[in-house]
Write a structure and sequence with these properties.
The structure is a single chain. The protein is α+β, with helices and mostly antiparallel strands. The protein has a domain of 117 residues: Electron Transport, Fmn-binding Protein, Chain A (Pnp Oxidase, Chain A, Roll). It is built from 4 helices and 6 strands; from the N terminus they run H-E-E-E-H-E-E-H-H-E. The chain has a 6-stranded antiparallel barrel. A hairpin with a 2-residue loop joins strand 2 and strand 3. The radius of gyration is 16 Å and the shape is globular. It starts with 36 loop residues before the first helix and ends in an 11-residue tail after the last strand. It catalyses: oxidized coenzyme F420-(gamma-L-Glu)(n) + a quinol + H(+) = reduced coenzyme F420-(gamma-L-Glu)(n) + a quinone.
Length: 186
């Protein structure tokens, strides 16, 4: 994760955006504040750049307590067949990794999610090394349970999700069958 940007009042040490929004402010008429779309896209680009320039030493983190971690997901493009990488927030659910297909809470679906649906066998880079995984969308009870866990991490989750016209997929990344312990980094 990038170091905290103390000069930006809306970025916390955890890397999540905050404008002092409290739960009482989440009436149907009030949505939680997000920075402008251009800033979100700039921050994504800067985060990937720091990761690349540091040779992967900076930019990833483990989830701790009620803070999500950062992983690098590499998919295969559904149209080009080329590798595409993106840095995502995640938490651990046993040996599974859980993320949200939310595209910065904007429309449309993120490209990495569309790529993962077309080619579910992907690789994630974690602080302790790469891990081959297979991704899928959580359904029914699993989705409800994992969404509730995300809500513990991000109190504004439901307000952010309300900005989107479609339901936000909860993405589960499961270690691929036959993957050795050494290649999973454990």
């Amino acid at each position: 994760m990038l170091p905290a940007c103390r000069w930006l009042p809306f970025v916390r040490d955890s890397g999540r955006y905050d404008a002092g929004v409290t739960e009482s402010d989440l009436s149907p008429a009030k949505k939680p504040w997000l920075p402008p779309r251009w800033f979100i896209r700039f921050f994504w680009s800067a985060h990937r750049g720091v990761f690349r320039r540091s040779g992967g030493r900076v930019g990833l983190s483990r989830p701790r307590g009620n803070r999500y971690g950062m992983l690098r997901l590499t998919t295969v493009g559904r149209r080009t067949g080329q590798q595409r990488s993106v840095i995502l927030g995640y938490f651990e659910d046993g040996e599974n990794l859980v993320s949200l297909a939310m595209n910065g809470w904007g429309e449309p679906e993120p490209a990495w999610w569309l790529n993962l649906q077309a080619h579910p066998d992907v690789t994630v880079d974690l602080v302790d090394g790469p891990r081959p995984v297979r991704g899928h969308a959580a359904t029914d009870g699993e989705r409800s349970r994992l969404w509730a866990r995300w809500r513990e991490i991000d109190k504004n989750l439901d307000g952010y999700a309300a900005r989107r016209s479609s339901e936000t997929a909860v993405v589960v990344l499961v270690p691929r069958p036959g993957t050795s312990e050494a290649s999973r980094g454990t």
